[in-house]
Design goal:
- With 747 residues, the protein is an alpha/beta fold.
- The chain has 3 domains: 39-287, Purple Acid Phosphatase, chain A, domain 2; 347-528, Rossmann fold (3-Layer(aba) Sandwich), CATH 3.40.50; 542-719, Rossmann fold (3-Layer(aba) Sandwich), CATH 3.40.50.
- It is 43% helix and 18% strand.
- The protein is built from 24 helices and 26 strands.
- A 7-stranded parallel sheet has the order 14-13-12-17-18-19-20, with helices on both faces.
- Helix 12 (369-383) crosses helix 24 (721-745) and helix 21 (651-658) packs across helix 23 (702-717).
- The chain starts with a helix and ends with a helix.
């Protein structure tokens, strides 16, 4: 294996592994958000335990911690042991106990505080509120603002984030303090309410309560009702100041990223309440560390906490960066050769018989363009000596010869006559038959259902898969139980692109179809090859049979016969054609008869439309016609008319040309390459007047009709089945050579 191939394999393994890791982490995130955390209204039990501990006592001692966020290691390894050894009655978080409101952060704070040997309560701070954490705090701990009494002290907790109405809190606080007869009153609010401190770090200037009216009203109430101390956090420092008899304590050192200053250090606050006063002392954790070491330790604490508290988000970020690095490496560093590999030699595969496993969602006895195309390819390949195993749905009608065909049982049939079928893909017999056949290549004719099974089997058997793009799926939105715009504009194109790019080769019937695939992002190697026609069969027609058919359909002498072959369904645009013929009558051209061959779900609606347009005597609905009888219907006609815009190639147009009929069609992707305007027919915009004008010119000018019909026959001769099958066989050979050359290089 070359160094380049080895590196590519390692990059691929890393890419796949990283995608797997991302999947696991996303599942973990889903578990965190869906699983019951097992915590509910924690403050109820904690407050009850606090009351029991201090019941009947005039003195109590508790600790206040602030900004536990981003400091899991410091809080766990230094603060918690000191608190447990200090005989504190309880612990109060002044805010920012979590890194953010995500579920994993709340689970971490439960683990950390449950390591305490004393009860605890949390203040609702900015971090508890962020990232949709407010509902977790409410469910797991309790309301955002609350109060309780312990000993001779009234503890009051406020919400400074704005989650709770400020006016509601002011009214509640006023009533609480007015009705309180206790001698000590302590308030906790997550954001500082006093004016900005001179030592505030520059990046924390906006970490204060940003609600001037609320702040001023709070200060007024504090002073009027003799509040002793107001505790807050949200700043990475310790500060204690007094304003008009109220002490304001800011503590942000239970962790957090501290800065190098006299006021910023790791600490918690020791609070003692006695009849003669309140003592407040910060307990330093790192007095022995020099400034530079404190700075590094703070940075390490932040990094450690980010990984520990929210490791899934950390790994998600790393995985996303790895994916980005892989993408950039492949896009910018790895060499790319956009030209074909001319050293690949398909000759060994061209000169031998190939085994082709072929999958189609449609086949006889159901008649459609895809069915006919599949059958012609099958017969053409067998003439060349190739062997074909065809895997198709089973229908209620039996075909006389099913040699080389494996029929899959139907799970669901839909359509007017059950012609569209979803087969049983899990039938083991399908895979067993294919493996026993030992195909060289797999050819699929639909990008879903049996086509998807063919793609899967190609990967399992490690052989190339070829896909023929037959159908413009966006024009079949009316068959899909999804919003039409969503399917037409997004899903249909995505389905085609995703499926086609998983195949090793694509056959398209026209250059316009190839252009469409490139526009939507298909990069797979493509062969432009129209479906072949049995040209000679359309020349060998008995005139007596045609005359009898003409008489049977009631066509009078002197009538110009228009022939159209189409499924009677919305996507075929037959309504446009009938309305145009009504316009032709209004212009005075009446000596014509339209023979419309085909059947489908719109037949009843079209019969009504024919009556409404006054065309009952000029349109014959011939119904479904066996393929072997179609040459007689084409030879019956003088002009072939077509209005469908959902075709990828319009195979019936080539058949009509084989019979010497000029064509009048609506311009679309499947028509553009088959009809050469003014040479073998005319293609018009989707406009009634333009279409009628071209048709009227051919009806009136027999010489023009004859000349274009002869040129149409010459054009069709170049699309015979033999050359069609040979070109597909050679395409298989090229893909096999490329596929196996690539596999040898990666070994």
């Amino acid at each position: 294996m070359t160094g380049r191939r080895r590196r590519a394999r390692w990059l691929t393994l890393l890419h796949v592994g990283n995608l797997g890791l991302l999947g696991v982490l996303l599942l973990h995130q889903a578990y965190l958000h869906l699983a019951d955390p097992g915590y509910e209204s924690v403050h109820v039990s904690q407050v009850q335990e606090i009351r029991q501990r201090v019941d009947g006592r005039s003195e109590l001692r508790f600790a206040v911690v602030g900004n536990v966020n981003n400091s899991v290691r410091v809080f766990r390894d230094q603060v918690v042991p000191r608190l447990n050894a200090g005989s504190y009655d309880f612990v109060v978080s002044a805010g920012n106990a979590v890194s953010g409101g995500q579920e994993e952060n709340y689970r971490t704070v439960h683990r950390l505080f449950n390591a305490l040997e004393s009860p605890y309560v949390l203040t609702f701070g900015q971090n508890e509120h962020d990232d949709f954490g407010s509902f977790r705090f409410y469910e797991q701990f309790g309301p955002y603002f609350f109060s309780f009494v312990a000993g001779d002290v009234h503890f009051l907790f406020l919400d400074g984030t704005g989650k709770t109405s400020f006016s509601w809190q002011l009214d509640w606080l006023e009533r609480e303090l007015s009705g309180s007869a206790l001698s000590r009153r302590l308030v906790f609010i997550g954001l500082p309410v006093h004016r900005e401190l001179p030592e505030t770090p520059v990046f924390e200037s906006d970490h204060y309560l940003d609600a001037p009216a609320f702040r001023d009203a709070l200060i007024t109430i504090f002073e009027r009702h003799d509040v002793d101390v107001v505790f807050s956090s949200n700043l990475t420092l310790f500060s204690q100041l007094e304003r008009n008899g109220v002490h304001y304590v800011t503590t942000g050192g239970a962790g957090g990223l501290i800065v190098d200053s006299e006021s910023s250090f790791h600490h918690f606050v020791d609070v003692g309440v006695a009849p003669d006063g309140i003592s407040i002392e910060p307990v330093r954790l790192d007095l022995h560390l020099p400034a530079w070491q404190r700075r590094l330790d703070g940075l390490w604490n932040a990094i450690y906490s980010f990984f520990y508290v929210s490791y899934t988000r950390f790994l998600l970020l790393v995985s996303a960066l790895v994916l980005l690095a892989l993408y950039l490496h492949r896009s910018l560093v790895e060499e790319r050769d956009y030209y074909p590999d001319f050293d690949v030699d398909p000759a060994p595969y061209q000169g031998r018989s190939l085994r082709v496993g072929m999958y189609s969602n449609n086949y006889f006895p159901f008649v459609s363009g895809v069915t006919v195309s599949v059958e012609r390819l099958r017969r053409g390949l067998e003439v060349l000596g190739d062997r074909v195993l065809l895997i198709v749905p089973r229908y209620s009608e039996r075909c006389p010869d099913d040699t080389g065909i494996e029929r899959a049982p139907t799970l669901v049939a839909f359509g007017e006559k059950g012609e569209f079928r979803l087969s049983n893909l899990l039938l083991a017999r399908l895979g067993t038959r294919l493996r026993a056949f030992s195909p060289d290549v797999i050819h699929v004719h639909h990008p879903f259902w049996l086509g998807s099974l063919g793609l899967f089997m190609g990967r399992r058997l490690k052989i190339p898969v070829v896909y023929t793009y037959h159908t413009r799926l966006e024009h079949y939105a009316h068959f899909v139980p999804l919003p039409g715009l969503l399917f037409r504009n997004l899903i249909s194109h995505y389905l085609i692109r995703r499926f086609a790019n998983k195949c090793q080769g694509i056959v398209v019937p026209t250059s316009s179809a190839e252009e469409y695939l490139r526009v939507i992002g298909v990069t797979t190697k493509t062969l432009v090859q129209p479906t072949g026609i049995d040209f000679d069969r359309f020349q060998e027609v008995e005139e007596g049979s045609v005359a009898r058919l003409r008489a049977g359909l009631g066509i009078a002498d002197g009538e110009t016969v228009l022939v159209s072959v189409s499924r009677l369904s919305t996507e075929k645009n037959i309504e446009f054609m009938l309305e145009s013929l009504a316009g032709l009558v209004s212009r005075g051209t009446t000596a014509f008869r339209l023979v419309l061959v085909g059947d489908g779900p719109d037949r009843p609606r079209l019969i009504r439309l024919i009556e409404e347009l006054g065309l009952a005597g000029r349109v014959v609905l011939a119904g479904s016609v066996p393929p072997e009888e179609m040459p007689h219907y084409y030879r019956l006609g003088d002009i072939f008319v077509f209005a469908s815009k959902s075709e990828t190639q319009g195979m019936v147009i080539l058949e009509a040309m084989s019979a010497g009929l000029p064509v009048v069609a609506v311009r679309s992707s499947g028509i553009a390459d088959a009809v050469i305007d003014g040479k073998n027919g005319f293609k018009t915009p989707d406009d009634h007047d333009a279409w009628v004008a071209r048709l009227q010119s051919l009806i009136a000018d027999i010489e023009l009709r004859t000349r274009l019909g002869g040129q149409a026959r010459d054009f069709a001769r170049a699309h015979d089945t033999a050359s069609f099958a040979r070109n597909i066989h050679d395409f298989y050979a090229l893909l096999l050579a490329q596929y196996h050359a690539g596999r040898r290089q990666t070994r």
